Amino acid sequence: MDKLVLILGDQLNFDMSSLQGFDSKTDKVLMAEVKAEATYVKHHKKKLAFVFSAMRHFALAVKDKGWPIDYYRYDASDNCGSLGAHVEHAIKQYQPNSLVVCHPGEYRLLEEISGWSERFNINVQICDDNRFIAAQSFFSQWAEGKKQFRMEFFYRELRKQTSILMEGKQPIGGKWNYDADNRDSFKSVPTIPAPSSFSIDNITQEVIDLVDEEFASHFGTLKGFHFAVDREGALRVLHTFIEERLCDFGQYQDAMLEGDPWLYHSHIGLYLNTGLLMPMEVIQAAEQAYFDQKAPLNSVEGFIRQVLGWREYVRGFYWHFMPNLKTDNYLNAARKLPNFYWTANTKMNCLSQCVSDTQEHAYAHHIQRLMVLGNFALLAGIQPDELNEWFLLVYADAYEWVELPNVSAMVLFADGGNLASKPYGSSGAYINKMSNYCKNCHYSVKEKTGEKACPFNYMYWHFLHRNKSKFENNPRMAMIYRTFGKMDDAKVTRILEDGDIFLQKLDNNEEV
């Protein structure tokens, strides 16, 4: 055998760099539903069902091409339990000249794979990860000599390099960023096209039964599973978004609505992050919708910025700042994650809604994650390890390369400001502005202190008080601290007392 090609569970595309030049006469594909990967955190049941089903569908497509493949199911008697054990077994069995694998998306896997050459006495070829547009080295080259790292300027560089939404050297429409046009909330409950939904085939049903039996204690539910599990389905999700929801996506991308987590979003993160969709085809589909006058520029640019800007940026940021990013804790946050992140049992309706959505769908959109779930964790001082593990396991699109920068750096400011110029914390006013959650809440968003006050209100100022030494000299927070400094002493005392009482309730696992 010439090449043994290892395909990981998030590399499900025939265009993967590791499969280029594959010769069915001399090469073999290796895939496995690895027990160690499925259980190192207790992944959401729908996430496991999606990944295993997508892997099995891809393996079937490999066989349909006439390519030789060894595929190990999770419950197979000969499942070796870990990637390394499967690779070692295959090398002993086939004696290949080389092992080929696409660069993994997580630091811990890269460390393991980098040791295989010596461990197994074989040439290991780690190919560039072409699930991204920018080379992995691009971020570090761009960041060299910079004192601050801001996504906006990284994004502009990629726009120039790819010529996406460009007229020569200038952005189409004269502006790089239309974020200011993309912050509307719903004045009334709109009629929104339903998200793409797929029936469960025999392969997926087998996986659902497996997950139901083997992972019964994991977070979430399998009820209502409707994800696409192959490339054809993923392309349908993309096409439906472009045709039905992209037009209104920009204006309402930050809005939240009780009882509807899907809204106008694309819901393609899980397909991009498993390779079922490639980023450039997604970006070009959105760009073409603008050229065809199917969607306005603010929507198209806002969507493209998520893929070409933020997705590329956090991936580069992750590799540039690892492994320290995993242990950063700039604010010395030490509080345990409250139980309601698992149960949704809280009187704060916004948090109950977002946890319930997550529990049911393995999905919540970016503002739910950042400005409700993340915002609360920031204000309450939740330790990074606790929140990182939660975000990694509950979302179907979560892998460490995307989750860790978003949670540690963006949500918790644990990296001290390499990613964000200030903490993304807010009082209840922002949540009330962007959603209808507050209307059905036990607490009153209009009350600033007292038993009926929205906890976000006093917790915001409590957070600023606790971390004054960290932020009072931050130029973007100077006005906030001036406002805080002008409050009368009695009001400040009430705020701090309410915050202390609330945090004590969290520590005691009392209902809040």
TrEMBL record:
Pfam family, one: DPRP
Matching InterPro entries: Crypto/Photolyase_FAD-like_sf, PhrB-like, Rossmann-like_a/b/a_fold, UV-DNA_repair_photolyase
Protein name per UniProt: Cryptochrome/photolyase family protein
Organism for this UniProt entry: Brumicola blandensis
